[in-house]
Specification:
216 residues, 4-stranded antiparallel beta sheet, elongated, alpha+beta, 2 domains, 7 helices, Alpha-Beta Plaits
Amino acid sequence: MTSRRKIWLVSVLLYALFVSWYTDFGGPLTEAEIQAYIERTENRDLGAHSSAREALLEFLRNDTGGQFLMFNAVDLAKNPPPVEGAPPDADGQTLVDLYMEHMIPALLSRASHPVVVGKSVADSLDLLGIEGAEAWSDGAIMRYRSRRTFIDIIGNPEFYARHDFKLAGLEKTIAYPIEPRIYLGDLRLLLGLFILAITALLDARLARKETRTAST
């Protein structure tokens, strides 16, 4: 096998390994998986209304097996209550950071990650039919490999141990999922283009080297 072919083979293998890790090929959640999640979490309280839990179960039962993005609008608490395990004078950002100390490794280890994270620079510029949603302090979009990955994260006891930090650190929040139809930031696309470009450049360099060698 020539060096040029080896370069392309290695590139294809590396990309295939990444895609196999980054993509959930298990298909939609089964009812047995959903019931197992319910059994693990039925005695745990996230501070959410029963309607929110029903919405979550409907979300799981309508699984398509694909990735999804979670949109988060966040307003940090200005005077959060004391929380066991946190510094006595912790502000809202400190409490949320304590929560994210668990969430970030849990996300990254499961091919999930932040897509966009930023501070609000103005009040809501377009608002209709929602009271109290004029002001937000932060916003974020998180990518989840699948709904299976999502329940794996939120069904972990460590998630519940840390969730009190998040609840205390927020004045209000809205989080809702979408399955993207257009997602130009998909790492499978970006990494594929990057690997293709690098491999093509290396191949072209080897081709020129072979041409010079053959002509001498």
